[in-house]
Amino acid sequence: MIRTRFAPSPTGYLHIGGVRTALFNWLFARGGGGQFVLRIDDTDRQRNVSEALQPILDGFHWLGIEWDEGPGVGGVNGPYYQSERSELYAAAVKVLLERGAAYRDYSTTAEVQAEREAAEREKRSFEYSRRWMAETDAQAMQFENKGRQAVVRLKMPRAGQCQFEDQIRGEVSFSWSQEQDHVIQRADGTCLYHLASVVDDHEMQISHVIRAEEHLSNTPRQIFISQSLGYDLPEYAHLPYVAEPGGKSKISKRKLDKYLKNPDFKRLCEHGEAIARAVAQESTADTFNPVIVDFYRKVGYLPEAVINYLLLLGWSLDDQTEEFTREEMLQHFSLQRVVKSPASFDPLKLLAFQERYMRKLPLEKKVSFVLPFLQQAGRISASPPCEIGSHVGKILEAAGDRVKVAGDILQFDEFFVDDEDLEYDEKSLEKRIRKPEKAVELLHAIKHQLASVEAFDACTLDQLLHDFVESRQIKIGQIIHALRVATTGKSVGIGLFDALEIIGREGCLVRIQRALDRIEVTRKVS
RNA sequence: GCCCCCUUCGUCUAGUGGCCCAGGACAUCGGAUUCUCAGUCCGAAGACAGGGGUUCGACUCCCCUAGGGGGUACCA
Length: 526
Description:
This protein is α/β, with parallel strands linked by helices.
């Protein structure tokens, strides 16, 4: 039975790299008919765990990565918070002590540090002298009488090789002599990560430890702990990092300034910020940025697109296939096809996936996807009348690929304001109406025709405009741009005839008149 | 410093000794289409880190060098 786990710390946000690791764990387990466990790594944490954990759980729910055991769902191997499992760790420490695989150490941090520095000065690799090691109670007593306190250290082998098979990297080997006598338990009795992790993985019957590459060099000490405790070793698989945009080092939310120098990343941020502003979301870089998964939810990415992109960041099926449904991912995912080198995060490729998934989304789903954004931005009321659905549907249909993420709907505010409140972009007004010689006259004329045309739909209007142009011997561009600015306030947007239809006859007439009034007012003034 | 891992187009990747003067995708650049923008269509440019071996033959195997990354905590 395959069992994998992901063990996040409650940090308050879900990191994009963490999600990728979790995704691979989830795919590997579920795809192989196994189970995926979520365990909370809150050893050594005083902060409010539930508050710092919630965004992480929310992120997984949003992405559809569900766990078989863990917070909220329980399970027979609980508790799933490491802070609640300390007896287990203490018991393991006791066994390690009894077996001579660990010892009580009465050194101070400063003393060990001094040894370390001395070794460095002499350019040899550090090996703790074990001067304050107590292997018998008598020794311990001696140190304690001097007022010293003990931590528990691993008594690591100092000769030979530690070899293991990594599912992604193949045979890996380390010399034991490079390993330190790591502390596994503090003087206050609390235990450290490596011990806790090994004990939990065993207790929870984790068969495959799939984690980020940073843990590769930690593996020997974990193997030592496992073996000393008499555990069977799990399979290990070390995933390469998700690297920063255009770089090779691990992506981190602390280096945003650096990533902003990457134009694609910058555009992604700005795009997100613009949407956040429109929906009045707080958008401080600390809580809202592309390294945090929640960013994509708030901006209006589809979870499927994010997942698909992440899947291909370090894994591929072949030289062609890029799009995967959940089922296909589960069916095809394998550790063998995970790439060994780090994959840098490419905002543009993510967007490309988003566009593909958006295109495939049926109209009605697209409408309901986009509606909450309009509500949050105050473009429509919190409980909109049901016609709003068809209104938004028409806009989305006409907008087509222009709405790449749900938040992009907010660019089309011209369809959500009252005719009297429409704002006109000054530059566009200047360029398309004020400056062209005949624009004002043409607008007056077309307004007249719009008032009397029998049907007010895109098709009829298209015909009307073309007839108009022909009868006056002008180019279509001469009227179309002016009309666009007059009715939408902007020089860019969806197809004009669709726009006119959506705005409606009344709206168009009012808007055109308002635009003309503006021009005339300024003309009189000057 | 020491240890470990990694290295194919700008980016994600295919490639497991001949199918590769290296394939796909995103981005880029042309051209076409359109009322703007977004698309769409067609086309172009673009990579095996370097050096040694092994072999009839290396992107593929071995060694060295360089570069990158990670670890070296009473962090996880």
